[in-house]
Amino acid sequence: KRLTSKSKIPKGLKPLPGPKGYPVVGSVPDVPEKNSFVKFAEWGKEFGPIYNTNLAGSNHVWILSDDIARDLLAKKGAIYSDRPHIPALISDNRTSAQYLPLLSKNDGWTRQRKFANVIMRESENALFHRYPETEAKRMLVELLDDPSRYNHALESFISRVTCRLAWGHSEASDELKQRARELLIGVSPTGALGNKLPFLMSLPDWLVPAKAWERRRAATERKFFEIMQGEVESDLKEKKAPKSWMRTFLENRSKFGFQYELEGAYAVGMHGIAGALTIAAPMQTFCLAMCHYPQYLPMLHEELDRVCGDRLPRAEDRPNLPFLRAIIRECLRWRPPVPTGIPHYLTQDDEYNGYFIPKGTTMHPLEWAIARDPQLFPDPEAFNPLRWVQPEYPTYKEPLTQYPTIINITQFGYGRRVCQGMTVADEDLLIGIGSIAWLFNIDRLPGDVSTPPTEPAVVTDPEVVENLTLGLNEKASLSSEELNAGMEEPKSPTKEDILISKYSYPGTYPASAVKKTETPKPVEEKKVVKIDPTLDFTTLLIAKPLPFQFSLTPRNTERAQKARTVFQEGVERGDYKGSREFWGADQGKNSPLGWGKV
Ligand code: HEM
After folding, report:
1. Whole-angstrom distance, CA of residue 54 vs CA of residue 511
2. Which positions bind heme (predicted)?
3. Least C-beta-crowded within 10 Å: which of 182, 240, 245, 487?
4. Beta-bridge partner residues of 365
């Protein structure tokens, strides 16, 4: 929607405040790609808890207060529950009935939300078929074997659980990660080129590689969903299909009233993708928080030892693990996985407190700021799980057998569009984080120079800076930072390029500060590099801490042995299978289907 000119504002109402911006592009040049949510929160200090930005001619309103978000997005849900158009997707996200989170408030959305309610309730009642407990054992052994690939192990844990929930087995978990990663790039404002330069999408494919990339992504996804549905169908016929969302769909097909042949395949697949995308982020944040706030891990160990003793945590332990729930709750508050929120779209002119909000405005509940309201969260920048379990804090709530909980918190959105997967996230995080803490000590490496977030670390040694980037781009890792999919054959980024995109906000560093050359540089050329080690996150819609180095060691040999034994028992029962390639060994590089270069 074009920005409404002042003359169109109804009498008696004012326009919302906001940054002035520049002609044509509006405020786009003022928004950094890295940690844009920090900039949007800073503008809130200047313009108040609800303000307007013009981004390349479109009207975007940012909401920084939970009360205002509720007043508008929830109470006035009848007009605030649509979704904006995402230009980089070739099928119109609002009407294609492919991706429930991106659909307009139409019939497709209503029937898929009903379907989502059924599959979520059913799997929740069955304690998610114990899939999180099963996969936690494999994750622990992977972490014991190679702690430096922790990022991969955590993402694989989530992807395998979600894959089992969606289709009954974990074999497609690498493919699911890749599907999730490509879709995330497709929908993120900082991802696919078509979202940055929408006019490209009206040009022919041969002129615009980004468009060809999207066509290939969509075709691969469709084929993947179709294969997965077909396999569960034949397993069902042979009466060997484990419990899954797909099985529920196939056994009750006529009840859901889906309108096109693969709608069920998409409805299930979309939930698989939504799960694979999001839940590893708070687990990675947990590792980050334990490194920088070491006082809390011993408290968590004490609780887990008291409640679980020498066995791994299980779903039934939930009421007895308030401190674990407090840690999880605080991870979501301190580093919200969707820091800019998922936008809603306003379908009618509206007003709020004398301000005019025009129809066609994209509304952003800015979770980053909402989760830092100092009235509710004293000392908001500090990771402090005690705020959930000690009565002197405003967020304390009883009974502690139920609270703290992540169910219905603001990080899952507002009103009619609220997240459908909260209970899955809740279960995965309880079992996933609980199991890691049960087995491991988590610490910064000896000599780690990074300091807590109140004071951004000042690093001058290029060697140190370079080491901080290790671990990028593992196979099928969702944390890869290679963006702009579909552009000209990119040169693989140099370490220098990666650093430039990593640290461009809030610190500054010239490339010369990190360049490694044959001959040592004179000292005066080493410039200061500022890094806040707890804010080094990916730039896509779902923000995850970039891989970092830390020490992950078993608390004692008995526990390590126990983890290996219970995993081995599962292997012998046939609980675990490896991941399958779908498009051949080269991932479909030379065929029309396969992994887009991302
Ligand atoms: C930590 C994990 C997660 C976070 C932080 C998260 C966050 C969100 C947010 C912010 C929204 C938008 C709400 C709004 O528009 O107001 C959303 C929507 C949604 N989420 Fe999640 N989510 C998570 C996990 C999941 C999982 C595991 C699933 C499914 C298995 C899922 C499925 C969905 C769906 C289907 C929607 C769209 C609802 C609609 O548009 O009507 N989410 N989520």
Report:
1. 32
2. 419
3. 240
4. 63
Residues of the chain scoring pLDDT < 70? 1-7, 449-531, 598
Within its chain, how far is the Cα of 196 from the centroid? 20
pLDDT digits (tens, 9 = 90+) for 552-567: 999 999 999 999 999 9
pLDDT of residue 64: 98
CB of residue 414 inside a 6 A radius of ligand 1? yes
Contact 356, 9 (CB under 8 A): yes
Q: What is the pLDDT of residue 25?
A: 87
Cis amide bond preceding 399, omega within 30: yes
Nearest Cα residue to atom 6 of ligand 1: 412
352 CA from centroid of ligand 1 (Å): 27
Strands 350-352, 355-357: pairing is: antiparallel
Q: Which residues belong to CATH 3.30.43.20 in the chain?
A: 1-94+339-370
CATH for 100-336+371-447+539-573 (1.10.630.10, 1.10.150.120, 3.30.360.10, 3.40.920.10): 1.10.630.10
Q: What pLDDT score was predicted for residue 500?
A: 30
- Protein residue with least CA distance to atom 41, ligand 1: 417
d(CA 81, CA 417): 7
Which atom number of ligand 1 is nearest to the Cα of residue 542? 5
170 ligand 1 Cβ < 6 A: no
Specify the pLDDT at position 585. 84
Q: Judge contact between 282 and 537, C-beta under 8 A.
A: no
Residue 494 CA, ligand 1 centroid: distance in Å: 35
pLDDT of residue 213: 92
308 known ligand binder: no
Whether ligand 1 lies within 6 angstroms of the CB of 279 is answered as yes
Instruction: Kindly state if the Cβ of 363 falls inside 6 Å of ligand 1.
Output: no
Residue 596: predicted pLDDT = 82
First-residue to last-residue Cα distance in the chain: 30
Q: Kindly give the distance from the C-alpha atom of residue 229 to the centroid of ligand 1, in angstroms, as a whole number.
A: 23
Amino acid at 188: S
CATH of domain 1-94+339-370: 3.30.43.20
Q: Which amino acid belongs to residue 318?
A: R
Q: How far is the CA of 506 from the centre of ligand 1 (A)?
A: 29
Q: What is the pLDDT of residue 512?
A: 31
Q: Quote ipTM for the complex.
A: 0.99
Using DSSP, state whether 119 is helix, strand or coil.
helix
**Contact 272 CB / ligand 1 (< 6 Å):** no
In angstroms, what is the span from residue 412 Cα to ligand 1's centroid?
6
> Measuring from atom 21 of ligand 1, which residue has the nearest CA?
419
